[in-house]
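New here. Your pick:
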Amino acid sequence: MTATHLAAGTLALALSSCAGSYHQIRPANFTRYQSMGPAGTPVEFSYQFSALQMAGGNRKYIKKERKRGYQTVVVRVKNNTAADLNFSRDLELFFGDRPTMPVPAIQAANDLKQGVAIYVLYFLGIGQIGGTTDPYTGQTTGGTLFPWGPLVGAGNMIGAASANSNMRKEFVTNEMTNKVIRPGETVYGIISLREMNVAPLRLQLRAAAAAAPAPTAAPAAPAPAAPATAPASDGR
């Protein structure tokens, strides 16, 4: 194999099966949210499917998402009630007409991560630089063997592991499971659904949360009584 053949082979391998990078989703920076319901409702809910794709790049993770039957969704929730709301306890998410439950962030990240150990196979890669090629047989004699495999394999393993770690960290940081939303607060998050297709999403208060009375302010403590004044002395 000549240096030209080696370079071409290495380039083809890198383009076809190199480790994929992870581009952060950053749900708070999304500008294209689909709102469900008018503003001012007890819980304002907006969402956007195809979060991995809209973040740019993420080719490896989009492929895994489709293969494993996932939908990665960014959500925006505003609490217009007078009480704290727990996303899992007080709110119910619907996929079309049926309730659905997001997959925990760590499980979703594990299901969508790209392979790392597969790049160990690259360590076997070796090429030949220089030498003379017989035009009749195509065989090359002489030259220097170049073990490119360990370098390419190690680089891809580090890249894949780093990308997986970045995805896992963002999923966990933006997880909505048991997320507490304060009165008047707007939160952004990432949810992973085990759904092959897309359907309208809606979020509604559970019956127990809707019926709960609003918290009342504690009564103000009574003002301290003014100290009694001593009677004026008449000088006797």
